[in-house]
Design goal:
304 residues, alpha/beta, five-stranded mixed β-sheet
Length: 304
């Protein structure tokens, strides 16, 4: 490449001495470099005379192609500088539908306001699939519930989430009336309720199933729903008791549209956060997002 650059400078200058001055190297070094290039290509690139140099047919052909190549390189460098000055970039984020709606959107809103030239692409997958996509290099960032094996080096915790059971007061009253049991426990209510859960492949569902099994709650009938939004909406029209994340249903509970069923043994809270690849060179856009999340993780309210 260095030999090409020297030959290109000679062809542009039309003189070895002038090229030498432009390149700040000696004339013998310029002549030697051109000769080496001619030897490597097995052609004569220059006509050398007492009056100077001119290009051979082969030299003219090579010069024209190098002109295209070096102009393209120069244009690429200018565009990179322009991108850096504007903060332009792309980030592909993997996230489940529920976490996207209730957790990611509040973070993206603030980040995009400060970085309007960075393009965000969302790949909605389960948390388990999101981790796989990150490992395969198909996404740059994941928003997931922390699993065993994630370390502090690649996981930035942003919130703790708590799973609870909710329903309308009307549904609970009607269910208790059918049960013909005075002051039934929540465990008894859950055993008789139409329980609404996320589908079996969801990590949250697996966590809830473990809780139900551990506490001896054998569900008689249940409905599987694909995302948390639908669970909350179905609960609000008295279709049954839904297992939801407290932070996602907080407004409905606060305003009385749903009531929380008290548990004798509450479910342990789970940690959600952004996961980044540990051993992959991160783009400037991803580094900006990572730093923004770190700086703002205690300022974003996901309850609203």
């Amino acid at each position: 490449m260095n030999q090409y650059r020297i030959f290109y400078a000679v062809a542009q200058a039309g003189s070895i001495s002038k090229a030498s001055r432009n390149l700040y190297i000696s004339q013998p070094a310029v002549s030697k470099s051109v000769s080496k290039l001619e030897g490597a290509l097995d052609v004569s690139l220059l006509h050398r005379t007492r009056k100077g140099i001119s290009l051979t047919i082969e030299g003219q052909t090579l010069y024209e192609q190098l002109e295209v190549a070096f102009n393209a390189i120069e244009l690429g460098e200018k565009r990179i500088k322009n991108l850096r000055s504007l903060g332009v970039g792309k980030i592909k984020i993997g996230v489940s539908a529920s976490l996207c709606r209730f957790v990611l959107l509040p973070y993206l809103k603030g980040f995009i306001n400060e970085n309007p030239h960075i393009s965000i692409t969302i790949d909605c997958q389960s948390s388990a699939q999101t981790v796989k996509l990150l490992e395969q290099g198909k996404i740059e960032v994941g928003l997931v519930v922390k699993q065993d094996g994630a370390t502090d080096e690649d996981f930035i915790s942003i919130s703790d989430l708590e799973d609870i059971f909710v329903a309308t007061q009307t549904y609970v009253d009607n269910l208790v009336e059918r049960m013909e049991v005075k002051n039934p426990s929540t465990t008894e209510v859950l055993k008789n309720a139409n329980l609404m859960l996320l589908d079996e492949e969801n990590l949250t569902r697996m966590y809830v199933d473990e809780y139900l099994l551990k506490n001896g709650i054998a569900v008689q009938k249940f409905i599987e729903v694909s995302n948390m939004d639908l669970l909350i909406e179905f609960a609000k029209i008295s279709m049954g008791v839904a297992c939801v994340i407290r932070e996602f249903a907080s407004n409905d509970i606060l305003e009385g549209r749903l009531v929380e069923l008290p548990l004798d043994s509450p479910m342990n809270k789970r940690t959600v956060g952004f996961i980044f690849p540990k051993e992959r060179l991160e783009s400037e856009a991803v580094l900006k997002f990572k730093n923004w999340v770190t700086d703002n993780k205690n300022r974003i309210d996901i309850d609203n």
